Each structure stands twice: as structure tokens, then as C-alpha cells.
Amino acid sequence: MFLRIAPAAVLVLLAACTTPQEACIYDAQKELRTIPARIDTARGNIDRGYAIHRQVVPYTYAAICHTDAGEAYQCERNATRIQETPVSIDLGEERARLARLRAALPAAHRTAEARFVECRRVYPE
Q1: How far apart are CA 78 and CA 60, in angstroms?
Q2: pTM score
Q3: Which of 15, 18, 44 is nearest to 123 (CA)?
């Protein structure tokens, strides 16, 4: 149970350390962060000739567990793994998508810069 709560607690503590200006700037740059990642994905798809679908798959494995008294016994544990599956794509459409993303990048830069200036105006430090 603690292992599930600990990462969330860390995120809450980190968020508490972020100033309003930093949070605003981070949010203003969201599109600017996602477009290059999408460009990289499209470029990779074109280079490979197919896309990769990733999904989380649960599985069970045999393990050694211990009682509160320290006695070992065989048990089953649950875990997950990422399964990658190739997916066919229309290369022409993927090239068109890449071109649209590249064309959108300069506008995203301008928008992020304008939002950055606005964040600094609204939340001066």
C-alpha cells in the first residue's frame, strides 16, 4: 500500500515547491513539448515502415514470499509489462502528418513565447 502512495506524495511535495509562475510557464510550453515528440514518433514510423502499438499487459509469476515470522513459502505475484506490437500504417498519410507537425512547430514556438511573457507579467517573482 505504501508503495502506491509514496510516488503520489512525492509529486504533491514537488508541486508544492513550484511557484505559480513556474507552473504557468510549464503549462504554456505543453504544446511545444508534445509536437517534437510527435515529430520523432512520425519520423520513426516512416523510417521503420510501421508504427508500434504499446500496451500494458498483466502477468503472474511464481515467487518466494515470507510470513510475518520469516518463514518462506511459494506464492504468486502479479506484475505488468509493456507489450509492443507492430501496426501497419499508410506511409503517405504518415508523411503528411509529419509535414503538418513540422509546419505547426513555428506557431507553437510563437504561442509559447507569448504565454511565457504573459506568465511573467501575471506572476512576477
Answers
A1: 5
A2: 0.65
A3: 18
Mean pLDDT over all residues of the chain?
88
The candidate with the shortest Cα–Cα distance to 115, out of 17, 19, 30, is: 30
Per-residue burial over 71-82, b = 16 or more CB atoms within 10 Å of its CB, e = otherwise:
eeeeeeeeeeee
Query: And the C-alpha cell for 9?
Result: 506524495
Q: What is the predicted pLDDT for the residue at 8?
A: 52
The backbone region for 49, taken as left when phi is positive above 0, alpha when psi lies in -120 to 50, beta otherwise, is left
Task: Give per-residue pLDDT as tens, 14-38.
Answer: 556 888 989 998 988 888 889 999 9
Q: Which of the 8 DSSP states describes residue 29?
A: T
E strand segments, 12-122: 50-66, 72-88
Contact 123, 27 (CB under 8 A): no
